[in-house]
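## Example record

The block below lists the input lines for one assembly entry, exactly as stored, with component labels intact.
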Amino acid sequence: MMTATRRHALRYFGASAIVFATAAPFAATAQDRTSVKIGYAISKTGGNAGGAGITTLPNYQLWIKDVNDAGGLELPDGTRLPIEVIEYDDRSSAEEVVRSIERLATQDEVDFMLPPWGTGFNLAVAPLFDRFGYPQLAVSAVTDKAPEFVKRWDKSFWLLGGGHDYTDALAKVLSTASSEGTINSKVAMISVADGFGIDLVTAARPAMKDAGIEVVYDVTYPAGTTDFTSILNDAAASGADSFVAFSYPPETFALTQQAQIANFNPKVLYLGVGTGFPMYGANNGANAEGIMSLGGIDYSNEENMAYRKRHEELTGQAPDLWGSVITYSSLQMLQEAIKRRGLDRDAVSDELSNGTFQTASGEIKLEDNQLRTLWLTGQWQDGEYVAVAPADREGAKAPKLPKAAWQGQ
Amino acid sequence: MKLTYGIPAALAALVVLACAPLFVGPYWLGLLIGLAGYVTLASAWALFSGRTGYVSLATVAFFGIGAYTVAVLSEAMPYPVVLLVAAGIGLGVALLVGLATLRLEGVYFVVFSFGLAELVRQLVTWYETSINGTLGRYIFLDFGPEHIYWQLLALAVVTLLLTWWIGRSRLGLALKVIADDETVASHIGINIAWTKITLFAVSAVIMTLVGAIQSPRWTYVEPAIVFNPTVSFMTLIMALFGGAGRLWGPALGAIPLFLLFEWLSANFPDHYSILLGLLFIIIVFLLPRGVVGLFDDRFGTRRAEVQPAASGEGAGK
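Predicted structure tokens for the full assembly:
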């Protein structure tokens, strides 16, 4: 992999008097090209580094390695050009991510930019991608406003759905199980007081109501909470058979442990981000069985399994079971669009909007610049985090309910 | 007094800076926005802290209040009114906080001001999640970066003029006495509390406006984004580096440091935080009175009217 050695853009800081000389951009012509420049700003430090380091950065690195091992990005005339990477750390700061993107577009003059991690940062850079004419394949951004954003920024693509998608799917799983008599029609919900938790619980309330599920317990807790004893006691006392937590990884892990200690055995246990980490299955062993969350994968998809193997070989860790494969697939779409249409960014954006792509997560055809064929609910079954919703999509497994009681340790 | 040359030179520089967006590319414009923002923040910080010795880490509390006000109100009322409301809220919070806490001294005030930023952030989070049921907010204002830049530039000019004027007013004179000896100041009839609160409020309102003006650049705002404590630390170190007690000190600190940070983050993205930490230590140990102070010592240009400097050794001597 060619890591960025050419961060030459700022070399003439010492002589900032020549500021004005930079006004005239000069683009390299196709003949003297020796590489395709791809740039991105990612949170390598700060609060977002955890998420970015699991779902986004390893996939960027894997894809760049895969492409360069194959001789580079293929262009419509069959020639290949290696990828040259320019990487910045946005340090989890909104102002920094904005300036990094400006630098990539106007100083480094990269051919394509990959998006940063997180809903907020993807929105912060969207106007810039649009102004400079770059397609933005936003993956790690869960937002119900995607249709609005597509109207506003026609080269933006939203690939992980919105809060409603996930909560509607969950409500459907619950109402199906309830109508079959497996569980009662009551749910206890808790959510983290941060972007993700609030979005999901706000979408879940009407979704549950429409599905005929009664929310009997609905509490928001501050991010970083470590003791859930009283919350779990209240949830157990609420009489609900289903317990749903729209939680972040530290709390997801804590809730799993504390529910066992409290011997709290809901028939449906649905937890938030972190459940889909391979580590979660490994740490909890047989006790992970039956736990549900967002995402999931189709283990019979050979492309995806091959991707997972390569990911583990390169990074030493398996990819998470929700956003990772979508991130990699979005890069495959970009690669294929460049192969079909060349390095012209308008043409590539057009191809991304209208083309059909074979990717690690199956065939992808965007609808209104959004990915609508997503795995929305997953469940740990026999040591695998399988996709259970939408139930009518090929590769979906039936949810196994009720969840078995905790096993003694 | 070299003012005869100073004023035309400053005016010429201002004209060049104001015209810059017409010539430079988007990247440099982004840099200029950052520069104008930090020059203003550092000058506003020094306006209070540099003259009273109260080292404040509350910069981002006001900065964030400004950004959030725009996020909440930008669709409900015209932009100038939004700015006025933001300034009003900043003023209100500053008065409230000032009345309650300016009796604290030294490190207690530092700790309190840092806590204030966190308190405001948690209050906003609580309000948004519990009362409003959302967390992030969108700002869709039809501003180009050049509009943001011009507003910030104007605010920077106002801040510097205000600093200059206060230095020459009765308020400035009172401050000098307070900084030299509070007991003497109170004995000769200076209202110490009122003087400090006025200055704190002026400084806070400017910081609030910087946040408000800059926020349309981010499109999406949530507490973790706008209440980022790094802003407070950067502001403080810039002001200290330049020399917090002088009119041009904070600006002279903000410009080179901002460019240095930019260069570091472009060329050493993986070592940025370490280098930044080292730089902080160096500045505090080697340049306790800032580059302006160093210049004065070397060339003896320091004027007879000694200005107090909020130096690295802590506040409230």
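The domain at 36-299 of chain B is CATH 1.10.3470 (ABC transporter involved in vitamin B12 uptake, BtuC). The interface with chain A takes residues 20, 23-28, 30-31, 34, 122, 125-126, 128-130, 133-136, 138, 140, 214, 217-220, 222, 224-226, 228, 230, 259, 262-263, 265-267, 269-270, 272-273 of chain B (CB under 8 Å).
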